[in-house]
Amino acid sequence: MSEFRETLYAGYAQALSVDEPIYQGNTGQQEVQVFRNRRFGRVLTLDGVVQTTEADEFVYHEMLAHVPILAHGAVRRVLVIGVGDGGILREIVRHAGIEDIVAVEIDPQVVELCRELLPNHSAGALDDPRLRLVYADGLEYLAQSRERFDLILCDSTDPGGPAASLFTDAFYRNCQQRLGASGILATQNGVPFLQPEELGGTARRLADSFADWGFFHAAVPTYIGGSMAFGWASNSEKVRRTDLETLRQRFTKSGLVTRYYTPEVHQAAFALPRYMLDLIEAGLQRDA
Ligand code: SAM
C-alpha cells in the first residue's frame, strides 16, 4: 500500500495511506490526485496539498457558506471564486432565498474531475439553475465585472500557484467595489499556526480596503496545524455583529440541517486566541 505525504511545511508532514488510487494527472495548471483513504474517504490533492476529504469537508464548507449568509440575512446574489470540488456550491444552493450565483474557476479540469470522482461534494449543485459557471482567473473576472454582489466567497487554494493573485491588494480592492452596502467577503486564509504571515498580511490588506474586517476560525482535521482562519470583510460593521437571537431565528427559518454549524458556533468562531491576535497586530505594524 502506498502513502500520500504532504510536505507543505518545513519540518512537519502529514501522511495518508492510499488505500485505493483513483486518479493522478496534470491539468496543465495543477497536479491532481484523487485517492481513497480508509479514515477520510475520497481525498483530493492539488500540487501535493490536501484540498478536501469526504470525511471532514463539512466543517470547511458549512462555515465558509453559512456564517456570512446567515449573518447577512438577505443574500440574493453570490460570487464564488475557486469552485474546485463544488462543496461550497452545495451549501450555498441550500439557501432558498439566493437567486443568482456566479462561480469563477481557473481550472475547468478540476471541476470536471471532481464532478465525476467526488460527486458527494457538489451533490448536484453544479447543475443548479441559479448557477453561472465562468472559467477565468478570479482577479481578472473581478477587475472587468460591473456586477454587484451581496456575498463574495473565496474558496481558493493556498497563495502559491494559481491562487497567488487572490491574496493581493488588487483582489481585496476589487471585491470591495463589487459588494453592496452590507455585502460580505469571506475567504479561506490558511492555518495561522503554520502560515503565520498569511494572517497578518491579509489583515493589513483587508484593513486597507474595508470599513470592517476580521477573522473567524474552525479546525478542519486534514488542514493540519490547528484552527484554520477565514477572512471576513464588509463595508458595514453591523453584519459581523449580528446577535445570537437573530442568528437562531434565521437558522431555524432556513431549515438547514448541519453537522458543524450552529448559531452558537458561529458567534464563538469570531473569538480569536491570543496568538492569532498577536499575528494580526504584527502584520498591521509590519506593513504599516
Ligand atoms: N473546497 C475545497 C476545500 O474543501 O477546501 C478546496 C478549494 S478548491 C479545490 C480551490 C479551487 O480554487 C481549485 O479548483 C483551484 O483551481 C481554484 N483556483 C486557484 N486559483 C484560482 C484563481 N486565481 N481564480 C479562480 N480559481 C482559482
Automatic annotation (TrEMBL):
Query: Iron as a keyword?
Result: no
Q: Name one GO biological process term.
A: spermidine biosynthetic process
Enzyme Commission designation: 2.5.1.16
Q: What is catalyzed by this enzyme? A: S-adenosyl 3-(methylsulfanyl)propylamine + putrescine = S-methyl-5'-thioadenosine + spermidine + H(+)
Name the catalytic site residues: D155
User: Where does this protein act, in terms of pathway?
Assistant: Amine and polyamine biosynthesis; spermidine biosynthesis; spermidine from putrescine: step 1/1
Q: What class of enzyme is it?
A: transferase
**GO MF:** spermidine synthase activity
Q: Which residues form the PABS domain?
A: 1-235
Q: Which Pfam families does this entry report, sorted A to Z? A: Spermine_synt_N, Spermine_synth
Q: Where does spermidine bind?
A: H61, D85, D155, S156, T157, D158
Which residues participate in S-methyl-5'-thioadenosine binding? Q30, E105, D137, G138, P162
Provide the family line. Answer: Belongs to the spermidine/spermine synthase family.
| Quaternary state and interactors | Homodimer or homotetramer.
Q: What does this protein do?
A: Catalyzes the irreversible transfer of a propylamine group from the amino donor S-adenosylmethioninamine (decarboxy-AdoMet) to putrescine (1,4-diaminobutane) to yield spermidine.
UniProt cross-references to NCBIfam families, sorted A to Z: PRK00811.1, speE
Q: What is this protein called?
A: Polyamine aminopropyltransferase
The organism of origin for this protein: Pseudomonas nicosulfuronedens
